[in-house]
Specification:
Elements lengths: L2 H17 L6 H25 L1
Helix pairs in contact: 1-2
């Protein structure tokens, strides 16, 4: 894995972990995590192109 992807996903996961305690149920955390994961994977090529 290249450093850009590693740093990007570390930031996304770190920010998601800050929001996780506010989500009361496991299905809600799973749904939000899946949505954030898809969005992050979709945005990374765009951000890499801008770098």
């Amino acid at each position: 894995m290249d450093p850009v992807a590693l740093i990007f996903y570390a930031l996304v996961c770190g920010l998601l972990s800050l929001a996780a305690p506010g989500m009361k149920t496991a299905p809600m955390r799973l749904l939000v995590g899946a949505i954030v994961g898809v969005a992050a994977a979709s945005l990374l090529p765009l951000l890499r192109g801008m770098l």
